[in-house]
Amino acid sequence: MDKTNPKFAELETKDWLESLDAVFRNEGPQRVQDLLKQLHIEAQKLGIKIQQPINAPYINTIPAEQQPPYPGKIEIEHRIKSVIRWNAMAMVVRANRLSPGIGGHISTYASAATLYEVGFNHFFRAKNENQDGDIIYFQGHASPGIYARAFLEGRLSGFDLENFRRELSPEGGLSSYPHPRLMPDFWQFPTVSMGLSPIMAIYQARFNRYLEDRDLKKPSDQKIWVFLGDGEMDEPESLAALGLAGRDKLDNLIFVVNCNLQRLDGPVRGNGKIIQELEALFAGAGWNVIKVIWASEWDSLLDKDKDGLLVKRMEEVPDGQYQKYAVSGGDYIRKDFFGKDPRLLAMVKNYSDEQLEKLRRGGHDPVKVYAAYKAAVEHKGSPTIILAQTIKGYGLGEAGEGKNITHQQKKLNEQELLEFRSRFGIPIPDGEVQEAPFYKPFEDREEIKYLQQCRKKLGGYVPNRIVPAAELSAEPITTPSEDLFGEFYKGTEGREVATTMVFVRLLSKLLKDEKIGKLIVPIVPDEARTFGMESLFRQVGIYSPVGQLYEPVDKESLLYYNEQKDGAILEEGITEAGSMSSFIAAGTAYATHGINTIPFYIFYSIFGCQRMTDLIWAAGDAKAKGFLIGGISGRTTLAGEGLQHQDGHSHHFAFSVPNLKAYDPTFAYELATIVRDGIYRMYEKKEDIFYYITMMNEFYNMPPMPEGVKEGILKGMYRYKASEGQVHLLGSGAILNEALKAQQILESDYNVAADVWSVTSYKELFVDACQTERWNLLHPGEEQKIPYIKQCFGETGSVFVAATDYLKAVPYSIAQWIPGRFVALGTDGFGRSDSRAALRDYFEVDARFITLAALQCLALEGKISPDKVKKAMTDMDIDPEKVDPVLI
Question: What's the pLDDT tens digit per position in 157-197?
Fold first, then answer.
């Protein structure tokens, strides 16, 4: 036959396809993949450019003929799911009738009910004495459905559901979203703000492997399930760590994305296809992608699609149009979807409009969902993402099914309630439907028995947060003895070091400790050498799940880059958010795994706090423990780096997190005291707190610890250097040394004596004063308590000057409790690149400006003449017309 004849190409193609089919049937899919790979290589050698397809066809990944048999009783499960749907809806409706505008979400769970119920009935294993159980991140907006299931299980009462979003009611209530801090025996992890779950879960999955590789946890088949919305995937954190999960082959991780094609305001990708977009992103990062797009009703149609016309039509229709089909009748679907080609119309000629309207999306079909979950659980070698297409507000009908307004739907009228009741067969009489009552079958009913049997088989209930008692914990913590910290109490005997160096030395000693050394988890986002931590590379190694497969370029040096499978350091690369997610995983391991790991996350203070404040808040919600170490901090202490690098506000951020203790120590003994007390309070006393401590890279002498100052260090302030004068200079961090210089200037040049106070924590002082005043307010007939600040100063009538390397707002937070005239100096304004001396002059926090502020306060109090202040300005070369750094 002539090779130019089109029939020749057709026959040749057929011949190739038949050969491929024969290889598949005789030798299996792996041989097919090998052959295709070899063909690709040969084509490249011939100079043929082949565009690799980034997407599989817009159909289910698992063909109908490869689906496993469904293990459950679908009809009973449907009835259970229907009751849960009703109660979830009723919970939100009743809450908003009682308190209009209190909020709540119906449509998210309505779309995801099947995704959750297949998991609850067949996959989600509970933690108990015999198994680790699975870790599950529940989508925050779906919480009403999770509460409704717990109600059927007998874990929550009707009173609980009645008080959804009314946590302050006398009977107690249910939190709006998953919040372990508010429901510590129920929720494991906070999953709002949106976008935090994906990155936290990826690092949790990796941390599980870290614990196993370091012999802190026995290997297990524990899975991390993460339920997400397709709109949520636009958050940067949602996609930021895909590569890590792929590289580390985290096959313990399963994402389930509820692709209902809608976000809060409208379509996620009205003119595109979000499932195909996500498939390309995840597959490119090495994930196993399973698409669940079409329900079983489509199987026969796809089987008829010999020419691929139906698949082609499925691929060309944009998501916005699929949303339109969700709210349209069968006549419209026939005309618009199938009517584009007579051959497609012929496929459905025997279908009624009602049948076309009931062609479901795959995420609403338990058979398809089960097949995907089973494949995900059994998959080895990479993480899995399941992309399940659903309809937002499924079952709400005219009240919001598939509509753009459905996310905001909080109320249903009587007719809408009747339709919902009838659609899902809830046995509530017409006359009671308007009240939207909760419904629970009797305990001896088939539905409840089945539900309980399923959970018993899987080991118990989820979600369920279990914190082992101290005596059952794998590694109960005893605070290291004072001996370990002794060298820091002694000081450096004239040798100048930075507090960053002190911290690294302290961390090294903790890592060597026989009792808690293996529980220390250093975390760093690619700045270890900046912080002087390279000595730890050799001491404890950098964690890598495969060890070190190459010879490092610096292997001949003492401090080479040393990756080990049992390495202790989590070297995360340039990702503060990822590092913070590792901190949360390590800081909550006491609850997740019964292992008291102690994370020390060391980061560039400005980047860490600015970029990950949302995750720090989540750590507080998750009741995480550990130490956040803000390295090379201080707006004037970090010389040369400039505007984007110099941190003058992280301690201001710290005020916003209620259970975060924030300290800005100057000396080695202060740091050692704070760290030891932190370990004691978090791990021995089991307080739900965590720490933020700033470190500096400025070198100066570390003095020995004075007698009797430990209490003051921890409470936030102590007198470091006393005098008999009426001036009190308050310094913190590296600026304390400027206060000490100012004390000398005041005494030697102006005959003014001044005390110098080391303020280790303005937040501790502020919190203590506020709590004291609150107690006094609520106990008017009792002896009034005195804030710690006033205990330190008494009623002196002195003048006070505070100088900080942070915003003036930080010291001014305690202004109302200062018993005298008070001035705060701080680093308000954008940073600059220059030397420390120049920066402290620019921001007006050096010894000269501290001296000036003290003299001016004395002049305003009538203690000295204004002329003396003017002379001091001349003596110290201070320009009165200097531009305010805030304005530049």
Answer: 999 999 999 999 988 899 999 999 999 999 999 999 899 99
d(CA 58, CA 52): 16
> And the tokens for 315?
């691929």
| pTM tops 0.90 | yes
Q: 87-130: per-residue pLDDT in tens?
A: 999 999 999 998 898 888 888 999 999 999 999 999 999 999 99
Round to whole Å and give the CA distance between 844 and 806: 12
Q: What is the pLDDT of residues 691-703, one digit of tens each?
A: 999 999 999 999 9
Rg (CA), the chain: 33
**Residue 26 CB neighbour total at 10 angstroms:** 8
Amino acid letter, 876: M
Q: What is the pLDDT of residues 445-457, one digit of tens each?
A: 999 999 999 999 9
Q: Is the pLDDT of residue 440 over 90?
A: yes
Q: How far apart are CA 7 and CA 3, in angstroms?
A: 8
- Tokens 């015999």, located at residue: 130
Mean pLDDT along residues 577-582: 97
Residue 374: CB atoms within 10 Å: 18
CA atoms within 13 A on the CB side of 860: 14
**How many whole angstroms separate alpha carbon 227 and alpha carbon 244?**
19
Phi-psi domain of 708 (left: phi exceeds 0; alpha: psi -120 through 50; beta: other): left
Which H or E run includes 822? Answer: strand 821-825
Q: How far are the Cα atoms of 5, 6, 229 from residue 2, in angstroms, in the given order?
A: 5, 9, 55
The kind and range of the H/E element at 727 are: strand 727-731
Q: What share of the chain is helix, strand, coil (3-state, %, to 5)?
A: 45, 10, 40
Average pLDDT over every residue of 548-553: 94
Distance CA 623, CA 835 (A): 40
> Residues near 261 by Cβ (< 8 Å), separated by ≥ 6?
230, 267, 268, 269, 274, 319, 320, 322, 323, 389, 392
Measuring CA to CA, which residue among 384, 388, 54 is closest to residue 246? 384
Q: Is the dihedral of CA 663, 666, 669, 672 positive or negative?
A: positive
| pLDDT at 471 (0 to 100) | 38
- Preceding amide of 463 cis, omega within 30: yes
CB burial class (10 A; 0-12, 13-18, 19+) of residue 610?
middle
Residue 355 is inside which H or E element, if any? helix 353-357
In the three-class reduction of DSSP (H, G, I as helix; E, B as strand; rest coil), residue 365 is classed as coil
pLDDT digit string (tens) for 627-652? 999 999 999 998 888 888 899 999 99
Return d(Cα 461, Cα 446) in angstroms, integer: 19
Contact, 112 vs 258, CB < 8 A?
yes
Question: CA 236 → CA 240, 284, 451, 568, 577, distances in Å?
Answer: 6, 17, 38, 28, 10
Phi, psi of 668 (to 5 degrees): -60, -40
3-state class (DSSP) for residue 604: strand
754-759 and 717-721 as β-strands: parallel, antiparallel, unpaired? antiparallel
Task: Please calculate the CA angle 539-544-545 and round it to the nearest 5 degrees.
Answer: 135
